[in-house]
């Protein structure tokens, strides 16, 4: 059974930093691209970042480029999202999603974690 | 950037067929590598119900089907049940875009 468990969310002040983690199990982690998708309160889904199965290619949405960094540790089956210079517009539930394929961002999200809430507020 | 347009809401009676559309420029063409559909119930994570236009993940009922042609992709839910009430999102992978996962705005399916 595929399981994705996010952690690391919480309340942070504007300008602050946070590191999200996503622990994966139930599949060969290094064989699939992984992504972060967020959902602001009452809003739709927004893709944030993606990373290929090997970790050699990373992708970030224009809205977070230069502030967020996606990475993965295939030896620990864990995906990360380092978030810096946070603003109130980054307030959202952040989901990690297993890609449909290994390359690029994996085309779409086959499985999703339950999400972790990030609140940016003073 | 590529834009996907969904109706904000669709209503259907139990047992009937619901059709949720997703509009995009030439969405049915080869340059867009398939349309995926997600179901999201309140307080829950999205669940993939159709991928690559018309394939169903294991465990998804046959009542869920997808099609894609021209400028419109469609998610069809046959014999609608009360448990199908949810938000539905379409998504495409735009390989030439800086933001490769493009989501539609979502459609709230209400079962009357």
Write a structural description.
- The complex is a heterodimer of chains A (122) and B (112).
- With 122 residues, chain A is an all-beta fold.
- Helix content of chain A is 0%, strand content 50%.
- Chain A is built from no helices and eleven strands.
- Chain A has strands spanning 3-7, 10-12, 18-25, 34-39, 45-51, 58-60, 68-73, 78-83, 92-99, 109-112, 116-120.
- In chain A, strands 2, 4, 5, 6, 9, 10 and 11 form a seven-stranded mixed β-sheet that branches.
- Chain A is globular, with a radius of gyration of 13 Å.
- The N and C termini of chain A lie far apart (40 Å).
- The mean pLDDT of chain A is 96.
- With 112 residues, chain B is mostly beta strands.
- Helix content of chain B is 0%, strand content 43%.
- Chain B is built from no helices and nine strands.
- In chain B, strands 1, 3, 4, 7, 8 and 9 form a six-stranded mixed β-sheet that branches.
- In chain B, a hairpin with a 6-residue loop joins strand 3 (35-40) and strand 4 (47-50).
- The mean pLDDT of chain B is 93.
- The chains are: A mainly beta (122), B mainly beta (112).
- Chains A and B meet through strand 5 and strand 10 of A and strand 3, strand 7 and strand 8 of B.
């Amino acid at each position: 059974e595929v399981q994705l468990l996010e952690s690391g969310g919480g309340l942070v002040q504007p300008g602050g930093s946070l590191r999200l983690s996503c622990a994966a199990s139930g599949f060969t982690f290094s064989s699939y691209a992984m992504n972060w998708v967020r959902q602001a309160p009452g809003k739709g889904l927004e893709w944030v970042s993606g990373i290929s199965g090997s970790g050699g290619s990373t992708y970030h949405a224009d809205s977070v480029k230069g502030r967020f960094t996606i990475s993965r540790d295939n030896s620990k089956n864990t995906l990360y999202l380092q978030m810096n210079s946070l603003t109130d517009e980054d307030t959202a539930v952040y989901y990690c999603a297993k890609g449909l394929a290994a390359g690029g961002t994996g085309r779409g999200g086959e499985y999703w974690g339950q999400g972790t809430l990030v609140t940016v507020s003073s | 950037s590529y834009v996907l347009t969904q109706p904000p809401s669709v209503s259907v009676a139990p047992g009937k067929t619901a059709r949720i559309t997703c509009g995009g420029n030439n969405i049915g063409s080869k340059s867009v590598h398939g349309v995926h559909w997600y179901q999201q119930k309140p307080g829950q994570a999205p669940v993939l119900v159709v991928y690559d236009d018309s394939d169903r993940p294991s465990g998804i009922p046959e009542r869920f089907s997808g099609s894609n042609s021209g400028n419109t992709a469609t998610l069809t839910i046959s014999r609608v049940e009360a448990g199908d009430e949810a938000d539905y999102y379409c998504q495409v992978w735009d390989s030439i875009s800086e933001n490769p996962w493009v989501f539609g705005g979502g459609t709230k399916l209400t079962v009357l």
